[in-house]
């Protein structure tokens, strides 16, 4: 009788990915990609309850989460803000600054992070990183899951995920994801709530053509959200050191956001070599808030010295995007090579209005800045706002040359043109800037497990800031050079990498002063970061999964001195789980996040500090039956008190020790 060998993998529990297209349109393994790539998989998100983007990126090598407020966040990598985001490999122009709200991760299968400039796919932005959110897709056959989570501060969360065929032959299938979360918070008066719904339908129109149509909806409602944060020093220069629950919000503070995203994706396979993928996307994001900002420096003895700034803010942001890419193969010099080319277009529109409240500048004595008692004013003192449009067009061409059996060269160009018009708070946003960014990367296989690589890429970032003479600054430019080693073990179930990098950015707008009519003007400054990154992800041994990374960098400015000192120079990330051999139904794990000390020089006489700290998390999961499991998670086990960021001169404290219990069901 003929022997039949069956092989397979349990990627559902993996802490790594076998392939990623986040750094190029080519679906390459992490080892074949000539740039540093980290992956946070669905398994890691489920194990450690990483239910929003900030929690995911906080467990990512080299990424810093700058939580400046309760509902607004910045992310940095390699010394610079992350402004490049993708969904399923298609870039979403990030033209309006920071991330508002709480991006839920229930609809994502994994998140890929490409560090450094990503000039081949994202030709605009900073040379920091590109974050690619990979959406869930319909599975083969009927699958379903649900989970109920109860956590600290009366937090409740419900998740449901169903994938099902819609036709008898399975050529049409759908997946539906919903999530609801609400509760209180460790912060006074803060009660966040969010609802998520996601649906996607995939149809096999012909054996070679697939159409996917999807929509996601998320509504965030935050009562008692903070605008700004806590003052960090007294008038004598000593740190304030408030309790971690302290908040400057008023009883009437609200910050609500609503986002809708609709997309259609058509893929056609012409033959074994060539395919075409077209994606259309329409995003809508609305924000409505009533906020209370506290400014000033308090006196240590009396608490006086703080003042009020109430405001109401409404915004509407829409984006229309189109992306078309062809990928194929060609023969040259007796070898087969890969090629990809494509066009992209986007139009982003922002309309927002700030309604300033009566009573701006009112003194807040005797702790009234923190008790929520400031009465809601009429928001009719004055108004200001933005109304502008940003349009981007780009074309790219990339080729992966098979120079030898063990040597591959990835090279390409991305040409982009950016046109904006309108104004934001009295400053013209009108500009027209363009550039062509090159990319080149070489991968050399040392043996069947280890490869050496090097890459160079550029990026540019259009700007609307004006200088002292009222002229719009030219676009900021950036570049990344890196080299390293990558290895792949256990048939791709374990990936190891190490990288050396040098990242530069030129002509970035930095505040230079104010005019006679109190308008801020800027100057262009240069900076450079250098460092190392070590990354490991996947299966270390049977039943033992891990995702770990260490990063170290140095950032200097025009004068050669340390710059952006609010970014930690050293970071370590670890998330690991182990399926106990003697008790196969039990899985235990731990997460550890450490960073060194940071600071922010406010003036010649005042520098803010946050010492080095580590946060430890623990988890345990027990399979009650084949379909039902119970998991327990404990965060900040040592109850370490620390600030969330020194990105601004105000900040808030991170949550103390907290935990959750989740009952899950899978079919």
Protein described:
The structure is a single chain. It is globular, with a radius of gyration of 25 Å. The model is unreliable at 1-9 (pLDDT under 50). Helices cover 2% and strands 59% of the residues. It has a 22-stranded antiparallel barrel. A 5-stranded mixed beta sheet has the order 1-8-9-5-6. Strands 2, 3, 4 and 7 form a 4-stranded antiparallel beta sheet that branches. It has 667 residues and is mostly beta strands.
Summarize this structure briefly.
With 667 residues, this protein is mainly beta.
Count the beta strands: 36
Biggest sheet, open or closed, and with what strands and sense? 22 strands, antiparallel, barrel
Q: State the helicity in percent bands.
A: under 10%
Would you tell me the overall average pLDDT? 93
- Name the structural class: mainly beta
Strand share of the residues? over 45%
> What is the overall shape?
globular
Unreliable residue stretches = 1-9
Number of helices: 2
Radius of gyration: 25 Å
In whole angstroms, the N-to-C terminal distance is 36 Å
């Amino acid at each position: 009788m003929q022997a039949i060998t069956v092989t397979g993998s349990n990627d559902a529990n993996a802490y790594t990915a076998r392939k990623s297209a986040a750094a190029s349109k080519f679906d390459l393994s992490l080892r074949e990609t000539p740039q540093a790539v980290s992956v946070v998989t669905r398994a890691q998100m489920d194990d450690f309850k990483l239910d929003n983007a900030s929690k995911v990126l906080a467990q990512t090598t080299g990424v810093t989460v700058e939580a400046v407020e309760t509902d607004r966040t910045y992310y940095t990598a390699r010394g610079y803000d992350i402004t490049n985001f993708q969904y399923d490999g298609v870039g979403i122009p990030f033209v309006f600054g920071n991330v508002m709200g709480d991006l839920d991760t229930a609809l994502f299968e994994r998140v890929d992070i490409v560090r450094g400039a990503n000039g081949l796919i994202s030709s605009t932005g900073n040379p920091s990183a590109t974050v690619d959110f990979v959406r869930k897709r319909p599975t083969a056959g009927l699958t379903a899951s649900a989970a109920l989570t109860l956590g600290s501060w009366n937090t409740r969360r419900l998740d449901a995920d169903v994938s099902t065929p819609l036709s008898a032959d399975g050529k049409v299938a759908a997946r539906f994801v919903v999530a609801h979360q609400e509760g209180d918070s460790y912060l006074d008066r803060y009660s966040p709530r969010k609802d998520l719904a996601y649906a996607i339908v995939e149809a096999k129109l012909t054996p070679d053509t697939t159409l996917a149509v999807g929509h996601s909806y998320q509504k965030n409602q935050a009562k008692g959200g903070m605008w700004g944060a806590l003052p960090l020093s007294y008038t004598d220069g000593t740190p304030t050191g408030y309790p971690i629950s302290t908040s400057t919000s008023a009883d009437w503070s609200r910050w609500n956001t609503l986002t809708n995203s609709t997309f259609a994706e058509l893929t056609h396979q012409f033959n074994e070599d060539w395919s075409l993928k077209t994606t259309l996307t329409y995003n809508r994001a609305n924000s409505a808030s009533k906020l209370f900002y506290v400014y000033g420096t308090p006196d240590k003895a009396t608490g006086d010295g703080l003042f009020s700034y109430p405001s109401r803010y409404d915004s509407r942001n829409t984006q229309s995007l189109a992306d078309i890419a062809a990928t194929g193969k060609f023969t040259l010099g007796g070898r087969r090579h890969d090629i990809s080319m494509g066009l992209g277009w986007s139009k982003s529109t922002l309309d927002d209005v700030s309604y300033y409240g009566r009573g701006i500048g009112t003194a807040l004595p005797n702790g009234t800045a923190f008790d929520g008692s400031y009465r809601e004013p009429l928001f009719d003192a004055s108004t200001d706002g933005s109304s502008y449009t940003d349009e981007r067009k780009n074309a790219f061409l990339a080729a992966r040359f098979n120079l030898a059996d063990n040597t591959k060269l990835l090279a390409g160009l991305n040409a982009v043109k950016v046109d904006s018009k309108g104004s934001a708070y009295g400053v013209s946003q009108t500009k027209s800037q363009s550039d062509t960014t090159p990319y080149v990367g070489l991968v050399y296989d040392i043996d069947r497990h280890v490869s050496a690589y090097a890459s160079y890429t550029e990026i540019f970032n259009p700007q609307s800031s004006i200088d002292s003479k009222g002229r719009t600054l030219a676009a900021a430019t950036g570049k990344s050079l890196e080299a390293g080693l990558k290895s792949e073990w256990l048939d791709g179930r374990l990936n190891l990498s190490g990288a050396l990098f040098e990242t530069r950015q030129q002509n970035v707008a930095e505040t230079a002063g104010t005019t006679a009519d109190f308008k801020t003007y800027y100057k262009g400054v240069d900076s450079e970061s250098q460092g190392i990154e070590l990354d490991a992800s996947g299966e270390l041994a049977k039943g033992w999964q891990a995702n770990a990374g260490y990063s170290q960098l140095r950032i200097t400015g025009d004068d050669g001195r340390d710059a952006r000192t609010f970014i930690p120079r050293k970071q370590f990330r670890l998330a690991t789980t182990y399926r106990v051999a003697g008790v196969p139904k039990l899985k235990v794990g731990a997460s550890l996040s450490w960073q060194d000390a940071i600071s922010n020089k406010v003036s010649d006489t005042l520098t803010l500090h946050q010492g080095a700290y580590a946060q430890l998390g623990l988890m345990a999961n027990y399979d009650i039956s084949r379909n039902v499991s119970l998991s327990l998670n404990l965060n900040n086990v040592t109850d370490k008190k620390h600030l969330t960021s020194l990105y601004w001169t105000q900040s808030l404290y991170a949550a103390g020790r907290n935990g959750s219990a989740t009952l899950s069901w899978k079919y």
